Amino acid sequence: MSNEHSPDVDVKEKVDNLPLSPGVYMFKDKKDRLLYVGKAKRLRNRVRSYFQDSSDHNGRIRVMIRKIEDLDVIVTDSEAEALILENNLIKKHQPRYNILYRDDKTYPYICVTNADRPRVFPTRTVINDGSKYFGPYDSVKHMKRMLETIRKAFNLCTCAVSRKNIDRTKGAPKWHSCFDDYLESCSGDWDLEEYRATIEKVERMLNGRTNALIRDLKEEMSIASDALEYEKAARIRDSLQAVQKYSKKMKMVAGKKVDRDLFAVKVDEEINEACGVLFKVREGKLISKFHRFLKNIKHLEKGEMLQSFVEDYYTGQYAGAIPDEVYVSDELRNSEPLAQYLWEERGKKVRVHRPQRGEKAKMIRMALSNAKLLLGERKLEKEKAARKHIPHSVKELKEQLGLDRLPRRIECFDNSNLQGSDPVASMVCFVDARPRKSSYKRFNIKTVEGPDDFASMKEVLSRRYKRVMDEKEQIPDLIVVDGGKGQLSSAVAALKEIGFYGQCEIIGLAKRLEEVFVPGRSQSIMIPKKSSALKLLQKVRDEAHRFAVEFHRNKRSKRTIKTELTQISGIGDKTAKQLLTAFGSVSAVQESSLNELQEEVGNKTGEKVYTYFNGDEEE
């Protein structure tokens, strides 16, 4: 076992004694919480790989490995069984390090009940009672259109409740009862044989088998007509026309009448989510599409996300009949368990393939475009929700300081210098109490000589907000300067000179007593020490100070390199930086022996550096 993680003795013994059988493994932390659930063709080999040095481990998995304190396994007869068990356990326990799904919505289905006289109705609840569920539908509108087609084609009742709920004593149905039954047009009174034959046709249509259904309806209509059963022939004709109308609306996407599922996954790193899209093609026609958002995907490859999406679909409540072909947008990390599972479910081999060209690749590109669109909508949803959510500290800061508007965007400034040398300044930006690092700014002080914080603050604010006006950048809600009355007065003077004063609020925060100074007010404002508003201001001020000091140190370090080491003949910035990294400072380089220098930068260069500081001979 490994340098990367040394499990305790109990876990090590468990790993060493695992069987070389298929199964599911479960990692737990010291509090017995489930960290991760995985499947394996050979349990011992797969689990052992986590505790061996491997460049395959991404950062997320390395963090997880450090938390493993216990291990459980369940042996299965095949990889396909392990696949089903793995997905069931993930859904049940939602382990922290598995890919999870955004399930804040329930999808609509059409249910055909498991009964002597099956009912057909819409539902959002899937119950494992032997009933058949068709869907899920991406929108209620598409599901309702299908139910309306079923009603028109087969005169079949599709109410969501049983006809037993009828209350005829009051001459009207109950609020939730079957209106078709009340109007005496409910199919619940049909002959049982006729009813079951109709249900069989409905299922064929729900499965997308419209071509064969149309052919059979034509044959039935011809037989009824030849037998002079004209009323029956007329009813079949109406059914035929309704099915044909529905079939024409379905988009033909394949040159031949094939059944295939096409899966695609698109990633949005900004919101750390992915979207999986499925196109269901039956008899060459696109009959439905389905999507899910994948969370917890940091550091994962597309193949892993796609595999999780596909496996979750076929082993979960969503899957209908297994198609002839399955096509994917990226290569799956390990398609063997899925292929075996599909083979066992369908009874014959199902091709799982990534198309490179032709109509199948075109369909995959279309699915990816849909996923991209859905992710864009998801991003807008999150941004809208974020805009609505205003942190308590921001609201309290407005109240404590009597500001005219909520300080949702705060820009804070700080100066840094060492006895007037290398003067710099920083600006940090907080949006809704959180740092927006992409908006941070650094400033080299250009017009001020010596350690003059007031003049430096005036220069920096003039430069910053003149640019904001010239380039029409976003104006902050609040400007914070690190300091008391003097720094605030310089900042106000700068804003007035460039015509920016009054565009937003500005305050000064003095560090000694955490006093807040406001323009035009002689007395400072003392915000309660435990207030979240004061904690927010302190956090913003401290971040500006950290950023300024870091910039100052970097600038001073570069100047030191330039004025000391780079003066040595043949020593450039790269070698100087290498020496400083190795020895820590110029004085440490000066005190190093010839051998130490030569080991770091080579014989010739090391000798030059040593000679520069020590003369021709080593002491």
From TrEMBL:
Official protein name in the record: UvrABC system protein C
Gene: uvrC
Domain UVR: 211-246
GO CC, alphabetical: cytoplasm; excinuclease repair complex
Domain GIY-YIG: 20-99
Family: Belongs to the UvrC family.
Alphabetical list of InterPro entries matching this protein: GIY-YIG_endonuc, GIY-YIG_endonuc_sf, GIY-YIG_UvrC_Cho, RuvA_2-like, UVR_dom, UVR_dom_sf, UvrABC_protein_C, UvrC
Limits of the UvrC family homology region profile domain: 274-491
Superkingdom: Bacteria
GO molecular function, one term: excinuclease ABC activity
Compartment(s) of residence: Cytoplasm
Swiss-Prot/TrEMBL keywords: Cytoplasm, DNA damage, DNA excision, DNA repair, Excision nuclease, SOS response
Role played: The UvrABC repair system catalyzes the recognition and processing of DNA lesions. UvrC both incises the 5' and 3' sides of the lesion. The N-terminal half is responsible for the 3' incision and the C-terminal half is responsible for the 5' incision.
Subunit structure: Interacts with UvrB in an incision complex.
CDD domains (alphabetical): GIY-YIG_UvrC_Cho
NCBIfam families on file: PRK00558.1-5, uvrC
Organism from which the protein derives: Fodinibius halophilus
GO biological process, one term: SOS response
SUPFAM superfamilies xref list: C-terminal UvrC-binding domain of UvrB (SSF46600), GIY-YIG endonuclease (SSF82771), RuvA domain 2-like (SSF47781)
